[in-house]
Amino acid sequence: MQALLKAEFEKLFDEEPKLFFAPGRINLIGEHTDYQEGLVLPAAIPHGIYVAISLNGKNHARLHSIDFQEDFAFDLDGFSPKKGHWATYIMGMCSQLRQAGIDLKGFDMAIGGNIPVGAGLSSSAALSVAAGLAISSLNGILPEKKSLARYAQKSEQLYAGLNCGIMDPYASIFGDVNSALLLDCRNIEHEVIPVALENYQIILVNSQVKHTLAESAYNERRAACEESVEILKTAFLEIKTLRDASPDMLHELESLLKPELYSKAKHVIKENTRVIQAAHALRKGNLESFGRLLNLSHQSLSEDFQVSCEELDFLALKAQRMPFVLGSRMMGGGFGGCTLNLLKSSETMKFEQEIRAAYKERFGIVPEFIPTALSGGAKALS
Length: 382
Ligand code: GAF
Fold this sequence. Notes:
binds 2-deoxy-2-fluoro-alpha-D-galactopyranose, GHMP_kinase_N_dom, ATP-binding, kinase, galactose metabolism, Galactokinase
């Protein structure tokens, strides 16, 4: 990809570019907890977005996407984002960097990636992080890593309309080889948790569906959590987010909360505990116990938080019933994308054959299998 990107850039812009890479992410466990100042356990993956860049001496940005075979240009002093368009993420980062006081110079950029788009692997966070890193280093200023993660989060919220948390860009920036990040989304600090998979492997199964309500439902779930917090606060003054609530507190106020608010708050509160238990299991090398927590997380996301869908439930439950699978769950925002599966490396063929046949028979769709690894974070390549 790097050589192709460089060659394409030189053909288009007749300059030698600098290259940058930012990875996508998986999340081992801790779903829909980040925007309630909770705990998450993500990791960067080898798949990601590559960016080639050079200054152009003008006041505009010229972009080329290899994957979409599309050009896009915008004036640095006046641009209007197009929701859903890939260039929006780059405009968003320019806007955030400017607001942070960085005086941006015009640039040319080519973008390419090897990360499936729309599969819930955070291709958009990877694009924002790669672009942010590239643009700021070209302008001679490297923002602090945490600030870069916040700019990417803000850019996604303001420009793409997803009221997301900080997990995805954070994992893309701080990812560590063979490790997951136990990230506390309250103080934005992480502990590196080494993950020794031994004879096991993580395989993502891409359901190949993305239900259209995904974004609005995500924002609704976040709003539901905020509504619960307002109610909980009336009895427990110390509660600022669901991070501060315990199962007992929630139980005490059950009659004040509509059932749909109660079940969603319950998911978030219990998921935070599962993250702590999962990190503990990984530190001890207890993959069986870690796998059981994955299954519980899926059940809670499906039944209590209600962000799964028929396809994801089918894939997770089918995998969970296989004797060589330690755990399986939907991953990310929900309503499509991938399941994360932890299984015996020696059984991957069998796993793929059985899941492929069953999923095809049930939905008429061929799933994509993505074996993955826990990798390093965003970096300059040249
Ligand atoms: C998406 C969001 F971008 C994250 O911030 C996080 O909330 C996740 O869904 C759910 O855990 O990836």
